[in-house]
Amino acid sequence: MTHEARLAQRTLIFTADDFGLHERVNEAVERAHLHGVLTAASLMVAAPAARDAIARAHRLPELRVGLHLVLADGAAFLPRDAIPALVDADGRFDDNMVRDGFRFFFLPHVRKQLALEIRAQFEAFAKTGLPLDHVNTHKHFHLHPTVLGLIVEIGRDYGMRAMRLPCESREPLWLKPWIGLVRDRLDRAGIAHNDYVVGIANTGQMTEGVLLEALAHLPDGVGEIYCHPAVVGEGALTQGMRGYRHADELAALLSPRVEAAIEAAGATRGGFADVFGQAHDRGVQPS
């Protein structure tokens, strides 16, 4: 089927972000894939439970796994002495993305260290032995032109063929022209991408009701619905996730009503490699 033909129908990629952040996340990804509608997961290679996530992914041959690059509000892969301009004493990125965005753009030594870290995370993913289904970034930092340019350049060396385009119907008007520029950049580089996402406006709150509402009003084309499921446990996964409804998001992915709504919408499901016909070692067709 041609790319144009795919765009004329409804195709959905259901992705869980933060794969590897915690075993509670990893368990939810496994359950939602085996018993629900989840088709893909985005791996944080430097996260505390990354090794457990990789082991689970190898046991789930139909789960499409991509790289969730962390360049803000999380742990770096390289040690601090390799990228001192990027991380604090604990080897973590700051959450001041505006400040870091200016530093990435204007300071060559910072940009050089950024490139080293991006390459290190791609290399770490390559060593997992998992096919690279897609690439995205924590908090959509690839909307920054310097970050996007480095990912496109470095990603070529690791077989990157698809990226998330963070384009949601309710995005602010001021952001639309910039999204258009990102789309054009990916198209010129020959990198496949979704037409729209569902998940930005309701981050951490992708409940059954939210999914059913989205599925009732699906546009044509390739959509990515992303979420942050986790099984119930004590305490927040991170400080920034204190209000996230992880268990409700998992329940939504397992919901028979959601599965029925996908069927009623006439949508097929798969990972990026399935949707865009990329070569894939596991060779499973969309469900």
Automatic annotation (TrEMBL):
Required cofactor names: Mg(2+)
Key words, A-Z: Carbohydrate metabolism, Hydrolase, Magnesium, Metal-binding
GO molecular function: deacetylase activity; hydrolase activity; metal ion binding
One BP annotation, GO: carbohydrate metabolic process
Database matches in InterPro entries: Glyco_hydro/deAcase_b/a-brl (IPR011330), Hopanoid_biosynth-assoc_HpnK (IPR017836), YdjC-like (IPR006879)
Keyword Cell inner membrane in record: no
Signal peptide: none
Name of the featured protein: Hopanoid biosynthesis associated protein HpnK
Species assigned in the record: Paraburkholderia phenazinium
Upper classification of the organism: Bacteria, Pseudomonadati, Pseudomonadota, Betaproteobacteria, Burkholderiales
